[in-house]
Amino acid sequence: MVEPAGRILIVEDENKIAGVLLDYLAQSGFETHHLTRGDEVEGWLAEHPVDLVLLDLMLPGKSGLDVCKALRSGQPGRPAPAIVMVTARVEEIDRLLGLELGADDYICKPFSPREVVARVKAVLRRGRHAPASAPGGLRLDEAAWRATLDGHDLGLTVVEFQLLKVLSARPGRIFSREQLMDAMYRDERIVSDRTVDSHIKKLRRKIEDAAPGRDLIHSVYGLGYKYEP
């Protein structure tokens, strides 16, 4: 039996579009599955792990944005699948690839099915499941919620890991405290700016303990924080 090129879940409520994607991906050797509602995704994935989710933005039951947030929260002991968002709303692109959602790629409607297959292959080649390298000797293993710096385990909490992942993914970009709070807390709890400062302080201390003299996270007065190795 030939092993599939990858297992893909298509979440799309327009059956015509889904049918085209199913056909093209199957022809390229992928094992494909299709759901039409956003509120079905998490339960289905709990029983059927996949490598990548092609996720429409506008879905009945639960929006693609909310599904993406939930999947990025992860399931204990299981790597999160890669996510490629499908949208006709160009103004949402920054959010789709942004810190609070973390989609791996996006495709705008209308699209070429061949382009979709190429994007899916490219995302899978990059491989979310391997520990990701960031500038400055940092490696993040999302499956294990583990961060190492120059080979030293930083011993981060889940919130600290999420915070470091967001900052290191965009070196040099300044993130406001509000943006970082959105990334750290997905349950919409109310927290103060000082909570972010406290986590940053602890994160810096752990980096300093692992690599004395290394200052990777920088404060930008009046704006927020940035990662700069």
UniProtKB/TrEMBL annotation:
Known DNA-binding region: 130-229
Name of this chain's protein: Response regulator
GO molecular function, one term: transcription cis-regulatory region binding
Keyword field: DNA-binding, Phosphoprotein
Signal peptide: none
UniProt keyword Glycoprotein present: no
One Gene Ontology term from the biological process aspect of the record: regulation of DNA-templated transcription
Residue span(s) of domain Response regulatory: 7-124
UniProt keyword DNA-binding, yes or no: yes
